[in-house]
Amino acid sequence: MTKSELIAQLAAENPHLRQQDIDLIVATIFEEVTAALARGQRVELRGFGAFSTKRRDPRLGRNPRTGEAVEVSAKAVPYFKPGKELRERVNEGTKPRPAAARRAAVPA
């Protein structure tokens, strides 16, 4: 799903919101996640997963065309760890449960 497809789907599911507002909301969320990762912070979305950065040490790589050794500098790369609920839904192919059903399933 592309960003524009996500916006179109959210607009269809929420006719009371203008598509321009949904576009702004989605863009803001992505921008905030990106900015937090750039600052070295971790972003956790409960039930979905956590975004963080991992450090890669410098290494000696190879140019695939020539086979020549190339130095690759150290860098930070984005990393996503899916949450338990996301993993379960992907593996089971289940539909999202309504919030009331999730609350009822949690023992008091």
TrEMBL record:
The species this protein belongs to is Plastoroseomonas arctica
- Could you give a GO molecular-function term held by this entry? DNA binding
Q: Where is this region: Disordered?
A: 88-108
- Biological function: This protein is one of the two subunits of integration host factor, a specific DNA-binding protein that functions in genetic recombination as well as in transcriptional and translational control.
Alphabetically, which GO biological process terms does the record hold?
A: DNA recombination; regulation of DNA-templated transcription; regulation of translation
Which SMART domains does the entry mention? BHL (SM00411)
GO CC annotations, alphabetized: chromosome; cytosol
Gene it is expressed from: ihfB
In terms of Gene3D superfamilies, this protein maps to:
IHF-like DNA-binding proteins
Kindly provide the name given to this protein in its UniProt entry: Integration host factor subunit beta
Please provide the record's keywords in A-Z order. Answer: DNA recombination, DNA-binding, Transcription, Transcription regulation, Translation regulation
Its quaternary organisation is: Heterodimer of an alpha and a beta chain.
According to the UniProt entry, which residue ranges have a biased composition of type Low complexity? 96-108
Protein family per UniProt: Belongs to the bacterial histone-like protein family.
Domain of life the protein comes from: Bacteria
